[in-house]
Structure formats: structure tokens, C-alpha cells
Amino acid sequence: MNAKYQQLAAGIRNDIHQGKLSAGQRLPSIRVLARQHGVSLTTAIKSYEWLEAQGDILAAPKSGFFVCHRAPDLHTPRFPAFDPQATPVDNAALIAEVRRGAQEATHVPLGTVMLAASCLPLDELQLSLTRAARRAPQSAAGYGPQAGEPALRQALSRHFADDGLALLPDDLLITNGCMPALNLALLAVSQPGDTIAVPSPCYSGQLQLLASLGRRVLEIPCHAHGMDLDRLEACLAEGVVRVALLTGNHYNPLGFCLSPQDKQRVAALAARHRCVVIEDDVFGECGHGGPRPLPIKAWDTEGWVIWCGSFSKTLAPGYRIGWCAPGRSLAALATLHLSGMLAVNAPLQLALADFLNRGAYRRHLHRLQPQLSAQVDSLRQAVLHHFPTGSRVSQPVGGYALWVQLPPGGDGLALYRAAREQGIGLVPGAAFSARGLYRDCLRLNAGNPWSEQLKQAVTTLGRLARGQLA
């Protein structure tokens, strides 16, 4: 499939599924669409033809193109209603077991959410490593600046500005990945025994981190398109929490993206209640088409949002290079950063600066978006086909995690253990809650191109799941 028209079509489809384009709304003409996006008429025509084939738009003779009226998706997961309560993370041992199991190299990689090597521009990265080493051969001889290499912070500042996010190089700290950035932020703004608000279901790695730091969690209910901000606001107003660990874009494990209005509301709530929001935006650049959605940080005018990200989910997991923009917490994070990390790998920082500066990263992201969309869709369709009738699967607008809900009687943890015996990795839903929720759910990784091996693995999972219901 032509990457250019697929990318354009994926962006329009993303806007439709997020509600930015409403049912019945007239779309731009082919000529206007081509002019708006700087593409040929042929590319615009193919984009609309593809969207029509997917059932997203309708071509009305002599009238134009319109967004289809779509019935609600009966296959999306349902989410439990509950009142938020502060709890310790008592299932840390289960989370540790599951995370170890998800990384076993012999398993079909449906567990850890990670891109296959074939999705990564490894030759281009090697070129940047070589160029950086040639330009600064002495970079490996010292620890480098505490805040990170100026070249990388400057390159990131320009990269973020191209997406509409204004951050100066001095606003950024370079870290050993996103999770260490989250760890720094939590250490800087909270104490053992404090309660941290998190969306529910909550990424198991975050729960494990919170447990290791002795923090309690307050799970805020989510739905298919976001989280219950009314509940979050009530908890902030009552003084139950003073720190929230949230994600605005392509939330793992559900794949939703908060609307700009919701992001603005979160930033306003943080300022009004003097609550620090630690924003995990590690999947922010993993959209399925269209411009990169701005993070909550873009609406943060008073510095209450600590924005964290990394290259791990888009480019190079093994590099372990991330960043954070701490806002008003910069001094506290910088002190902890110096005592805890001392420095981040300087040659890799300089290589990534080169990769950004020569446009290779932007080109890679443009190629990656339609690829992720196709991989997620292939896995979703296979699950709906092979899993028991009544199974429900998320429809992510970004990222490459799928959240699956089994029919009544299904057990995600039992399926996880049965799958391990068959050499298949997955993560059970029980690892995403400290309250014992989501036992009928599981998360699958769509970071690999669709293959016969994945098809056979999903077929096996479906057979095991049906066996639970027999």
C-alpha cells in the first residue's frame, strides 16, 4: 500500500474515530484535500477510496464525500464502575512475575509492548552513531553535562517546536529512559506513604514502580475514550491526592487519546489545586496518522506538569535515552538526577542528536504511523475472529497495545499461564490494577508485522480461551 496515501487516510480515520469529524459531516473535495496536505490528486483520490472501502466515509454522487453514520462498536471492552479508594499495591509479586514472563525470548512476542527490530531504522541509527563518534571521539571519556548533552537538548527543543510544543533546551533533563524519569519525578514530589492518582487500568510497570517507592494508589475509572475527570477533580478538591500520574496520548493499555479540552482541563485542575501531574508521554509519537497530538504539558502555564518521554517506543529501546520537562520541579529533579544517575550515555545522546538534526527521526515516524495502524488492525481482527464469541477488543487511536476482554467466565491470568506453556507471551489484566480488577482481561502487543507465527499464536490463544468456557 502506498505509504503517502495510507498516511493521509489514517489521519482522517483517526479524526473520525476520535469524534473530531462527526457523522454526516462533509469532507473537503479531492482538490481541496490535495492542496491542504500538499499531495497529488491521485494520492487524495486513493486516500478517499481507501476510507470508503473501510466504511469510514461515503461518496455521494455530485455531492461529495461524507463521514459515515456508524453504529456503536459492539466489540469494545466494558469497564467496571467503582468509587476511587486509596490502596497499597499488593499485587507487586504478580506484576513482577508477569513482566519477567513477558520478556522471555523464546515466547511469541505478544507480551511486552515493544517494536520488532524490522520496524526500526537500525542502519540509519548506526550511521548516526558513526557520525557522532567521528565528530566527538572524546565524548566517551567523561560523564558529560548533568542535564544532558546540549546538542540533544537543542535538537529535541526544535523537534518539539515543529509539533507545536514550545520548550527551551534548558527546560529539559535527559534521562536513562522514561521510567527513570517517572521515578525521578515521584521521588521529587512525593514521599513514602503518599497516595498517587492513576488511571485504571494502569500500566503494570507504573504500579510496580509505585510499589517499590512505597506509594499508595488511587485508581480513577477509565472508559474507551479517556478517564473520568469528574472523579479526578472530586479527589483533588477533597485533598485526597496531591500528585497524579497520567497519560494524555495513546494510553497504555487502552490506546485512547484525551481530547484537547480534557488535556486543558487537567492542566487547569493541576494549577487550581496545586497538584503535580506527572505525564507519561512515551507513546505520544506513536499515533496511527495525522499530526502528533500535543501532551497535557502544552496547556501547562504554571509549571505543575512534569512531562516525561523517551525514544524507547518509537526508535531504540536498547538506547535507554529519555527526557523530562519538570517545570517548577526542575531544581528538585536536577538534584536527584545528579545523585542517582550522575550522567547518561553521551555517545548515544550525540548520535540521537544527529539522527534528529538530519531529519531521519521525522522520516522514520512518518513511515511508522501507517505501519502501526496496519499491525494493530491485523491483530484486532484476528482476535475477534479466533477468540470466543462475546470477546471485546479495544480500538486504539495510537500506540500498539490491544486490550482484550474475555466473555463471562474467562480468566486472563489462567490464560496467561496456559499460554506460557505454549510458548506465547501476553500480560493478564490482573496486573493492571491494585484493586483486583480486570481479571477477565489481557493485553497484547501489536509491535510486530503480521505473520503466520502471530496468526497461529492468536489461533492457539483463542482455542485456550474457548476451553475455559467449555
TrEMBL record:
Keywords assigned: DNA-binding, Pyridoxal phosphate, Transcription, Transcription regulation
Top-level division of the source organism's lineage: Bacteria
HTH gntR-type domain: residues covered: 2-70
Pfam families: Aminotran_1_2, GntR
GO molecular function (one): DNA-binding transcription factor activity
Family: In the C-terminal section; belongs to the class-I pyridoxal-phosphate-dependent aminotransferase family.
Protein name: Putative 8-amino-7-oxononanoate synthase
Source organism of the structure: Paludibacterium purpuratum
